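User: Quick sanity check before I run a bigger batch. Here is a single chain. Can you write out its predicted 3D structure?
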Amino acid sequence: MGNRFVPVMVFVLASGAAYSVFPLQSWSASVASPANRKDEALSHIERGETLLRQGDLKGAADAARRAVESNPSSAEGHYLLGRLHLKDRKLEKAAEAFSRSLNIRPASPDVLNDLAGLYVLQGKPAEAEQALIRAVAAHPAHIESYLSLAKLYERRRDVAAAKKTYARVLAVEPTHADALFGLATLCDNQGEYQEAREAVRRLTKAHPAHADAWYLNGQIAEKNGDLDEAASAYQRAIAAKPDLVDAHFNLGFIYRSRNRPDEAEREFLEVLRYRPEYAEAHLNLGSIYTGMNRLEEAERAYEKTVALKPDHAEARYSLGVFYELHRKDMPRALAQYRKYQELGGRDDRVERILGAGLP
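Assistant: Done. Predicted structure follows.
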């Protein structure tokens, strides 16, 4: 075989000496251009985001590291790596990655918002507030940062600032569900029921399938003594989210208070279908079955309650009354009454019975 000619770059120095280096073609192939590095990093980032959505945190982290290795100036790569560290509760590493991303792109609201969340986890509310203020200053329409800032003010019990921040979101998006729900919940917690009802009204009008809004509406109506509206609201909440256990429970309690045992039973059974360990639902069923003279079912419901919550004083009292009045079993009744007292329960009648020294 004949010799192949390989072109060689030759540098001639002033002294006349010549030095050869690698062929020009080989050198060009071994060094990626900036554009290629960016494309490679972007490909790794896209893969990492896909793996993150699929729940593959290890694979996503590997893709993020490859992205920043390919292009150390990739703000998106450092941000993805920071988010993954944050999910893994590696807070210091997350902070470092977020800082690198912000050094490259200082006004990124998404990075600042997540950095604020990290500061909250680290117990640094002042730093979190400053990060969020930077985010909304750079991007006045960045709703996620406003919502995070409102929640931060709520935790700080700065009600006025939280309300003002929710209002800024609603100025941009008047029907924003999270802002309306946050405002309604805040007002409800402050006892400002009229404002809370107005926010809920706007929310359910714009988002009629918002189960939590209907549930909150029911709670507010109950506090104001309007059981008809409360029942209707809980029904709407259940229609939107059939497994909303607390709505079933509250609706069952309303039915029970209105002497509608069949409907009350139905709701408490729905509670137990989704949450079999809900002791209060068993207790209410015990009372309902007792009133319906379904004593076997009542006894099972009461006994299930104390099995689930042995320190439930009211359940001990109810089971004691059941044994005494419906089973005529005084020894078992006394055992429940004694347990009731041990748990801090106080009842004049029980004290007289126990004081009488019955066996």
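The longest helix spans residues 34-53.

User: Great, the batch can go ahead then.
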